[in-house]
Amino acid sequence: MLKQFETHFKTLGYREPTAIQTAVYEPLVSDHNVLGLAPTGSGKTVAFTLPALANLLPGDGTQLIVLEPSQELAIQTSRVMRDWAKLLDLQVLALTGGANVKRQTERLKKRPEVIVGTPGRVLNLVTDRKLKLHLVSLLIVDEADDLLTGETLDTVRSIAQAAPADVQLGFFSATDTPILHELDQWFGQTVERIDVREQDQTQGVVRHGLLQVGMGKRDQMLKRLLALPNFRALVFFKQASTLRHTATKFYHEHVSAASLTSDLRQVQREKALQDFRQGRIRLLLTTDVAARGLDIPKLPAVINYDLPTQVNEYVHRVGRTGRMGEPGQVISLGDDHDLRDLKKLLKETDYELVPLYFNGRALSTERPVAAKTTSVATPVANRTTAQAPIETPVAKPQQRQSRTGGNAAPVPTPTKKKKHKNRHSKNKGMRKKWRDRDTQK
């Protein structure tokens, strides 16, 4: 590691490199093609940043391309890399979809050494000859298990083909997929596989809970969870329409929440994420657009409003909490059928799914028991001492004097029963009165 990096490493409070940072540094510096597999939150961004920047020459044009699956992750990665690049007088530029193309084109004229972007925007600029890759020596594909699927795979390959034939390749992912075993065939180069998922110790203690809630009551459950002290959560939805319905409802009810979806403008997405990171809002409602790579320091919880249908989806969602040794809580909402399907989906994994219950104003793994009220009869012998009866004075009834001067038996006072009048009986009496009057005539 360069001396500038070592000093900055200690300044940031890091004590020692993580397993993935140690494992890939020498191969990347030595121009080897690398596939790095490590758990979420294990420092993969820094793992490829340090060796990649070490081989760049300031002022020599664009030499490094980093591809990310989303705008948020591209912006986050560019900020991390910019923090290290300034130590070597290198420039980093983010190229993402949704941003102003003309402004990005103007910034490209400054010939930044590092480009971090989404595949679609990068390929468009390459096709329009606004971005030239003839000096690129290293191409990093982050979240490779996601980017190397469907049409995005063709986009990534087109970018790689636009670079020099001997361009160095780096792939990084938290989960293993079949295509990651076929990189040699797809990219025509031998790729060294480095898997440290078993050796990594950066993951904190994360509890995985199942909270049985029907679809119609999940919004109410989110508001109940906000009553917990210091509670913040990233809430994952499957359908954007469901998310918008909940977000609109929370907006009118003044619930501390914001949404992060792909149809929002980049400025809106950045503001929502920044507000959530700084604690100005407590619930960030999102789809799987935020499930990958986003680093939210000390995030207490992740909530699955809609349950994932694939193991990789669950892995990346829950990876947003419990990062870098911090504790975390995962709360999966669903009815009995949904939660049973989730258990089947994750039965081959190491996740321990535990039922959760609301016990007072706290989450608990113990099922609450309803209090039983039982009446215990007091023994007759003990009533005089333990529980004496309370005598209530009773008014004496009026007594009628007899003609002989003695007192007769008390006469009970009759209670006058109030006669209930209704419209029917009143009309009935009036009809009779009218009939009698007609008869007299």
Compute the number of strand runs: 16
The Rg value, from CA coordinates, equals: 36 Å
- Calculate the terminal CA-CA distance, rounded to whole Å: 123 Å
Order of strands in the sheet with most strands? 3-4-2-5-6-1-7
Q: How much of the polypeptide forms β-strand, as a percent range?
A: 15-25%
Region (Disordered): 368-441
GO molecular function: ATP binding; hydrolase activity; nucleic acid binding; RNA helicase activity
Biased composition (Basic residues): 415-434
InterPro entries: DEAD/DEAH_box_helicase_dom (IPR011545), DEAD/DEAH_RhlB (IPR044742), DEAD_box_RNA_helicase (IPR050079), Helicase_ATP-bd (IPR014001), Helicase_C-like (IPR001650), P-loop_NTPase (IPR027417)
Explain how this protein is built.
With 441 residues, the chain is of the alpha/beta class. The protein folds into 2 domains: 3-195, Rossmann fold (3-Layer(aba) Sandwich), CATH 3.40.50; 206-360, P-loop containing nucleotide triphosphate hydrolases (Rossmann fold). It contains 15 helices and 16 strands. It has a 7-stranded parallel β-sheet with strand order 3-4-2-5-6-1-7, sandwiched between helices. Strands 10-11-9-12-13-8-14 form a 7-stranded parallel β-sheet, sandwiched between helices. A two-stranded antiparallel sheet has the order 15-16. Helix 2 (19-29) runs parallel beside helix 3 (44-54), helix 3 (44-54) crosses helix 4 (71-85) and helix 6 (119-127) packs across helix 8 (150-162). It is elongated. Residues 380-406 have low confidence and may be disordered. Keywords: ATP-binding, Helicase, Hydrolase, Nucleotide-binding. Residues 415-434 have a biased composition (Basic residues). Belongs to the DEAD box helicase family.
